[in-house]
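Problem 12. The chain below contains 122 residues. Write out its predicted structure in token notation.
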Amino acid sequence: MTFDDHPELAGYEPLEEPLRGRRMIIVTRVVVVLGLIALVLPGVLVTISFASATAANTCSVYVHHYAPDAQSSSARFELFAPAGPGWQCYALNTEGDGSFVAPLGLIPTTPRPFPAETGASS
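Solution.
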């Protein structure tokens, strides 16, 4: 490339120092990170809240059907559960001890239809 090809660069001398100072670069990076957090965090919080409410409602239906003598139900997110990582449903007795009822998966859904009871007459 020669100056004949680009006459507008004929008197250009590049600067030795950067256009923006170190403080300005740090402030810009902080603003960008805060902006990304402000965009992503509400979606994560809504997703967690929705999954928690769905798991609690589904667990209460399963406990009502599979453990009718239980006092209450508890849905917990566990990474190292016997049924694999995800939401787990427990039936609670009067002392607060939990017995496993059903795995709800990573993304809990509404209760699935219950299988027909064996030995039931039609």
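Discussion. Residues 43 and 49 are 10 Å apart (CA to CA). Students who got a different answer should revisit the alignment rule from Section 12.3.
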